[in-house]
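User: Here's a chain of 792 residues. Predict its fold as tokens.
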Amino acid sequence: MTSADFTAIVDARGIVTGWSDAALRLTGYSAEDVVGRPATGLFAGDSLEAWTAGALPRVVVLRHRDGHPVELALRACPVLGGDGEPQGFVVTATAPGGPEPTVAERVFQQASVSMSAFDTGQRYLRLNDVACQVMGVCEDSLTGRFYGHTVPEDQTSLGFLRHLREVAESGTPSHYESYTHAPSGTREHAWNIEMWPVRDGSGEVAAVGLAAFDSSEQHWARQRLALLNEASATIGTTLDVVRTTEELVGLAVPRFADFASVDLLDWVLAPDIPDPPEAAAAARAGLALRRVAHLSGTAGTPEAVIGLGEMDAYPPFSPPARSLAGGHPVLSGAGEPDFDRWMAEHAARAAKIHELDVPVHSLLAVPLRARGTTLGVAVFVRALRPESFARDDVALAEELASRAAVCVDNARRFTRERSTALTLQHSLLPQRLPGQAAVEVAHRYLPAGSLAGIGGDWFDVIPLSGCRVALVVGDVVGHGIHSSATMGRLRTAVRTLADVDLPPDELLTYVDDLVVHLATDENRDDDVAEMGATCLYAIYDPISRGLALAGAGHPPPALLLPDGTVRLVEMSPGPPLGIGGLPFESTRLELPEGSMLALYTDGLVEGRDRDLDRGIEDLCGALAASGGSLEDVCDTVLGSLPERSGDDVALLLARTRALGADQVATWDVPPDPAEVGAVRKNVLAQLEDWGLVETGFVTELIVSELVTNAIRYGDPPIRLRLIRDRTLICEVSDANTTSPHLRRAHVYDEGGRGLLLVAQLTQRWGTRQTTTGKTIWAEQSLLEPGVASHGT
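Assistant: Prediction complete.
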């Protein structure tokens, strides 16, 4: 204190209780003159409240002892009692203007950080210029006031006050961080605050010093980095377009915006459109987009004017349309002519804003662009939070939109490829199974439930000669269009070889060679080298009730017998197709009529949480518990799956039938041309017994030609068999393995017209090799609906 300063103590009643020597020099009054007297008598026209209103200096006029006025800069500091009420004041005064501030005082007052001092009762003692700017008031209005009375009573203020008290009570420095609005502003700030005790000459804590550093920029940078890091993990978790946009708005609200929406161009949601339209030209002319996702910080998203899945028209001057047209973010808000016009011209949007009474003050539209293609626009809105979008927010929104756009484009491309693969696979699989009498069939096919795509599973039912039928299931390794195309080639190969009537083991040998050739073709890419497949091929004969089957690395079929028992067919599994050089082995067994075979691919019995043995056990249990039609059995089996498989699932059920003895007639034919007439008589008699007299003429010609050829060119034994089913089948077998063929006879040739005549008179004809020679067969249509037996 300088020599010009004086100090006085005044109690709560305004009575002077202390008076310094400096006060004597400034006023001419000694301590004996003023102690015990009211202080107001010393001041010209001022009340006690006027000059004890605060600790900041205020100029007052004192009456000097000799009568002339003395101007002093007065400062009063209250002295509180135990109840917190003022018990008196310590008054200090200097001449107006006071002494020149010291360097230390200038450093405090002009510091670039907020600095302040509090007494041990958490009352303001001093504030520098920055602290006053933060608080939004001058130092005079805060000095002497309790901190808690100058700020909102929230968690941040209570935490700040608690730290002030701890420093005053413990005498230990403290560090405190907060994120809150400054009293003088609307935008939230991050603060790093240092508090330390200030001690007097005796070492007691007399005050608490404070320095607050505004670390908002660093805090926001960390928040943006954290948001981008989270975006890389949460956006694009699925290959689904709509789900990806939902993840974007879910990340943005409420951390970045109060409301967010994503609108896409319609072609993005249509995977069959290969070439996207030019978005910029459409935006300049005004365009409509489809709302696919929106979210609000308020439950129920009341701000949404456009419903999910609906179209919204954007005029060319609107921020979303400008963003699409220019291919860059557009920052807009209330007060801008185009923005206000857009809000006013859209009646529903204007009504919604009026209803909610929360006007949009800041809007950010960001185009969703990926690989040079514009997919749509993301719109971020701030209405509840007071701060508008800033430049850093635009950069963050661009990063989020860019990440989401790539994920949306990936999902779009995946959907398009998957749709193409599904279409291809659907076209390659049998649309309707051919009619035949050997078995009753039902089937199911489920595409892969995982993101791996479409696989190469297939099944088929192929009618063979002699009322037999071939049952096929197969699985190509891998997923996607390539696997589906390979599946189509193998299915075609199997059908072609089945027409040759090869036994199962020989057929798989030929298919295995085909796969080896495909895998080693030098003109194909490297992916084909990894191609492999499994297959199960079975032939059922309803006359002998015999089943012949062979497998190429495929699970064996399950067999449900008429007595209700279920077992796997014991067979050699064989090597997968594409290994090459290894043999396949056929298995033969006889089935009771009404037996049910279940052929399937491994997707039915294998899963992430289920091994092959457990899956087959579940399949057998489902078959044993099933009943009713084959369609019901299919549903029961598929319903037993614990979860959607990550692989395709193909299931083919076949319930066997048997042709009775009254539907088959067999004759041994002596190798003598003179016996052909007797054979024709026997055939005509049999047709009469079957009620097929109207087929007698054609059948007689067919039998005569085939038997004559067998006698002339074949080797004994020769056997003739007639089969009455959906068609009338004539079969002639002999021990010669040479197959006949059609040829065009010349005008003067005596022979060569028989097989051509047979081909013209029958529905189809052919030859098959047997273990003892060959069989030539021909089928005639039975036109009358009531003639055929099973399967009509």
